[in-house]
Amino acid sequence: MVHVAAVQSVVLGVLSLALFVKSQYEFRKDQKTDHAFPPIVMDFNKLTGHAGKHAVPQGHLRPLGFQSKPRSSARVYRLFNVTEFTSKHVMKRPRTPAVFRALLNVSETASVLTDEMLKTKFGDIRVPVWEVNDSPLRFPKPSRKKLAKLIEKFDYKLWFVDGPCPEEMLSLFEIPAFLPCATSTLNYSADVLPPSIQTANLWMSSGNTPAPLQYQPDHQFRCLISGRWDLIFIDPQLKDKVAIKEPVPDVKRGYTEMDIEMINLFKYKRVKDAPWTWATIRPGDCVYIPAGKLLTTESINLREYCLSVSTYSNLQLLVTD
Potential cystine with 265: which of 60, 85, 226, 261 (Cβ 3.0-4.6 Å)? Predict the structure, then answer.
């Protein structure tokens, strides 16, 4: 009986120590920026001679992108030309994404966006916070946390901010000048014409942070302030191949039910048959994402800030001179 009691006390002591360590010490997230993208796709079954009906599918339990090689990269531009953009990405069907390099001068904004400044000036503002592993299909609403608390835990928690930019913070960011009436239509009233811009969304993350594969009903221009974003685009007619579900009927918004960081190809066998294109954007770059286009992003760096401008579906009104 003495030995049993001693063992029990040791077990309880180890358990208490483990709980103490978990509560007191957290592991810092990976902050490396040297990830290869798009990923190098190799068929290990052929390399090892295990090809056949019992072979493990290529890219099984790997992130999205390891199941097949990309079809191409998104088209990249050095300048924004309204006529060219309209003819190649708005009027032409299907609409395709486009990347614009160094469209914004973000050096001043990035230097201002320090943790201390954000905590001092905006620490009490509550922002929408998502957990990386919580699918919007199961958790349709984000939690709301004070910005100060978010910043304190950002390097350790699998959190990211994705939602309307607080009005108090809008002045920190430059809205792309090529969006007509961008500065005035964000504050329009009901007695004037509807604005071209619907919302200005803010993304904040720390370290490697994947976002779920999804599509939205509005066209978007996403401009990166700091960090790096790797993006995968998939055509909307391939929704069934990547297990997209719509949580609310007729809203034209959907999310995958897969874990895109570890895809089970025995369950989701058709992922490899979904062609995809890719892009990497860096500070100052902007990317146009057509409404309905399936998209997933992985942000990489110590801090990532991105301003996303959503527009009405009738984009022809937006890109007129």
Answer: 60
For residue 186, which amino acid is it?
A: L
Q: Nearest CA to 318 among 173, 220, 210, 212?
A: 220
CB atoms within 10 A of CB 18: 10
Joined together, the tokens standing for residue 122 give: 């905006």
| pTM, full prediction | 0.83
Spatial CB neighbours of 304, under 8 Å, sequence gap ≥ 6: 203, 204, 205, 206, 209, 224, 226, 227, 228, 229
pLDDT on residue 49: 59
Per the listing, tokens 């390099």 go with 101
Own/partner contacts of 241-245, CB < 8 Å, gap of 24 or more, are 241/270, 241/271, 241/273, 241/274, 242/64, 242/213, 242/268, 242/270, 242/271, 242/274, 242/294, 243/268, 244/213, 244/214, 244/215, 244/294, 245/137
